[in-house]
Structure prediction request, 254 residues.
Amino acid sequence: MGPSKLVTATFSILFACATIVTVAAVAVGPQPQSEADAEAQDAEVALKLTPDPQRGREIYLMCAVCHQPEGWGTADGVYPQIAGQLYPVIIKQMTDIRARNRDTPTMVPFTTLSVLSLQQLADVAAYVSELPMNPNNGVGPGTNLEQGERLYREHCEECHGTRGEGIADEHMPLIQGQHYPYLVRQFEWIAQGKRRNADPEMVEQIREFSAEDISAIMDYTSRLSPPPEKLAKPGWKNPDFAEFVRPPTRQAGG
Ligand code: HEC
Ligand code: HEC
Prediction:
């Protein structure tokens, strides 16, 4: 090998190294600036993993205590229905809760990385998103549904979909068939700024609604039923947790 060839070879090696370093730097990305950035990065990383719903099923045991084996929550709205929620939305909500963007102290311990790694989060999110939904969720008083529908069409449809089905790619939650008291509570919390992850456009809108408006919209939303293929048969119990001991006071309304 002559001297000029040697120089060329050395250059190629140097160039290759530089390329590797650059690629590695891009892949790792900038270090998170704040908790919100860290959380956004976690959600992004989790979304790229390949979930294993079978493993998710084992992890779900610790969620079932509150969200019930079916993922239907409780009709009083203390625990939301999470069954059938869109996969990316579950990931986003869980990383938000961990970053304390939502005032949900009961949930925080179950979202810390030592309890739930990002892979486990992906696994359990996949399991939950595939659970059939409650055919009998808690609904509102049914007294003002026309106004509820009008306000929903005007203010909510664009983001949450015609039937409250959400938009997976944009992390817009599915809200159809959710328990009425939970919906009302979330709305009040969003309006009071207790959910710091809320969409700013949505927060603006909410501030203008009266309590009567909110009740009407949420009553209507709670009655938007999911499509038949997402719904459980009446009386369905999750066979994955046949041995689960159910506290008698908490009814999923199902
Ligand atoms: C100790 C009770 C408890 C446990 C255990 C628990 N959760 Fe929750 N979870 C809650 C409560 C309460 C809320 C509603 C918080 C609120 O009102 O903002 C919630 C909210 C959620 C939400 C957001 C729902 C929405 O519509 O915004 C998701 C997703 C969720 N939980 C998933 C899980 C998963 C997955 C697990 C298991 C890894 C789990 N939870 C374990 C109590 C619990
Ligand atoms: C500009 C888009 C946009 C509009 C308009 C909008 N939302 Fe939302 N909404 C969102 C996003 C994004 C989230 C999730 C934010 C978060 O992570 O907290 C959300 C969250 C929610 C939640 C909480 C869901 C859950 O499972 O925790 C409810 C309930 C809700 N919206 C209802 C409504 C209703 C009712 C209207 C109409 C009055 C409305 N939204 C209008 C974007 C929107």
About this structure: The chain has ten helices and no strands.
